[in-house]
Amino acid sequence: MQNRIRERIYLFSLLVILMMAANVARLFYVQLIDSKRYTREAEGRNYTAPLDRRRGVIYDRNMRELAISHKVNSLYAVPREIDDLKKTIESLSNVFGKGEAYYLKRLTANRNFVWLERKIDEDRVARINDLKLKGLRFKSEYKRVYPGKNLASNLIGFVGMDNDGLEGLELYFDKILASSQGRETYYSDPSGARIPLMKDSSVLSPKGGNHVILTLDEVIQHIVEEEIEKVRVEYDAKQAFGIVNDPTTGEILAMANVPNYDLNDFSSAKTWVKKNRCITDVYEPGSTFKIISSVASLEDGKVNPGDYFDCPGYVMIGGHRLRCHLNHGHQTFAMGIAESCNVAIIRAVQKVGKNKLFETISRFGIGEKTGLSLPGESRGIVHPVRKWAEIDLGAIAIGQAISVTPIQLMTAVSAVVNDGVYIKPRVVREIHNADGEVVVSFKPEAGRRVCSLATSKTIRGMLSKVVSIGTGKGAAFINFEVGGKTGTAQKAGPGGKYDPDKVIASFVGFIPIERPKFGILVVVDEPKGEKTFGGIVAAKAFKAIGERILEYLGYYENDGKTANEGQLTVPDFRGKSAVEILEILEEKNYNLDILGSGDVVGYQYPLPGSKISDTTPVAIYFTDPEALEEEQESGLQRMPFVLGKTLKQVLGVLKDREISVRLNGSGVAYRQKPVPGEIILANTECQVEFKDE
């Protein structure tokens, strides 16, 4: 009996020893012989995911935001966790409006992670949360937002779903605006859940992108877009362009294309509308190009402003007849420019020859990119002089048989009036890092001389006559001497023959002409009507743009509109009751605009201590004491009173309070939303409408 017990014990011990030996052998095999395979399998469950990165802001010259990034939610699914596929698909289709087949295909894919909808609004996030569907999760991402919507859309451009620049400045400065990519390494268990790795190297935090500060002025951009759109609609034109610059620095203050598009919904826009046609599209400039031809004629002294030319209404070159819009008869070269006489400029250019004209054209950068910091710029079209036919000398002199981009023409003509010094155009002022420190500052270049100071002064004088007595009278200002040049160029049809019913009307001018502060180019493509001349169509927009810019920048502030300001000092009405207000009014009669309801004044505008005239309204907003105390503790603010103020004054009021604004019209403010005194939250956009007094 005892022997049998011993045998069993020995047998059991032997089995235990054999099992232990097998385990040791297995461990030996795994650790030493097949370790690489198991290491690969373990590492296969380690995943690296990108972390949210915030793209830099695009600002205008006054640090107004043009492109920003906000955190939003994106929806994804872990298919294996979904317990009711039919309900999930039906719910997603109902919330997002897509067909059920779309979600069926995504949710039945053999993947642990699948995107369903990217960067969705808060309303849909709430609806999905209310459904409490298993297997659906949210991930926060940054979404690019453009507060101005259509404003400068062709210049700014847009980004794709992963915040990569696709057009405009967003594309050109993509690497500068983009943040450094962060990442997180984690382990995924069999259920698909993430388990963070316990080591410092598992997380690399992203670094915010750099900010780009433009030379653009948001208000001037708005003015240009509004005025060229008015002209485009009035004349049922195909499209229109507008550029405003500082000729002395090359800074672009506005660059507008209409039609344009909403950057927040760029996928709905047609491809051609998304292009910045101010730099991509070429056109025959017509008579605006006579400014460059005049430089070639005058520079060597072979032609003088007082030289006479006979215009019978046409000129014959190489058996071809080039017509003039009138029979001007016997007139000086200067008067020929004022009246836009084709014969006068052709005869003048014939005196200097084609080589001189070609050399002048090349010196002004026509046929070459300006080097503006934007993608897609065209060179224009200038044929080598050796390929010119006999007629080309005359045709090019009047802006035919040559093609330019709007930015090329603007830059070249600006050089003529800028004492003959060519300045490379700039659209970016500075680049700041994520902490707001300046890392790059783009200063105006020294420039290069392209014509003499004497020629520049002579042409400025001739351009002044264009506006005072010539074809550009529609661009004249009352208080400023303006100079410019009209252009009405027929467009060539498919067979190369010019179509008299299709023209490009343009006007380029400077304010004031003797010492230009601003240059303005307006180009209107295919206006319709009886009178589609540049001196009528484009000059109208030029004048409206110029006058509104001068008003905005304060050049009209001393014309009597503000003569009585500063007579009264605004007292502090805040926290006072109606009875206390009446006591103040007994001493001095203020023009009060009483808003709201309650027992005490919670807000006033203008602020205490402001200097006003005796007719300036002072808005006071009554509220309850408890509400006032809560408001002060929370840091909320109320909408200022801006009615009756000029565009510049409105911007000053709202900028001080960091309130974004959408402007419409010109003149003085007559409607605002939110209403004065209404409590507003951060990022609230104020809408102000203006009308002429």
Automatic annotation (TrEMBL):
What Gene Ontology cellular component terms go with this record?
A: plasma membrane
Write out the transmembrane intervals: 9-29
Q: Which InterPro entries match?
A: Beta-lactam/transpept, Beta-lactam/transpept-like, PASTA_dom, PBP_dimer, PBP_dimer_sf, PCN-bd_Tpept
Q: Which SMART domains match?
A: PASTA
- Family annotation (Pfam families): PASTA, PBP_dimer, Transpeptidase
* SUPFAM superfamilies in the cross-refs: beta-lactamase/transpeptidase-like, Penicillin binding protein dimerisation domain, Penicillin-binding protein 2x (pbp-2x), c-terminal domain
Q: Which GO terms describe its biological process?
A: cell wall organization
Listed A to Z, the keywords are: Membrane, Transmembrane, Transmembrane helix
Instruction: Output the Gene Ontology terms for molecular function.
Output: penicillin binding
* Location of the PASTA domain: 564-624
Q: Which residues form a coiled coil?
A: none
Where in or outside the cell it occurs: the entry states: Membrane
* The keyword Methyltransferase is annotated on this UniProt entry: no
PANTHER family noted in UniProt: PEPTIDOGLYCAN D,D-TRANSPEPTIDASE, PEPTIDOGLYCAN D,D-TRANSPEPTIDASE FTSI
Q: What is this protein called?
A: PASTA domain-containing protein
Q: Which organism is it from?
A: Candidatus Wallbacteria bacterium HGW-Wallbacteria-1
Q: What is the lineage of its organism?
A: Bacteria, Candidatus Walliibacteriota
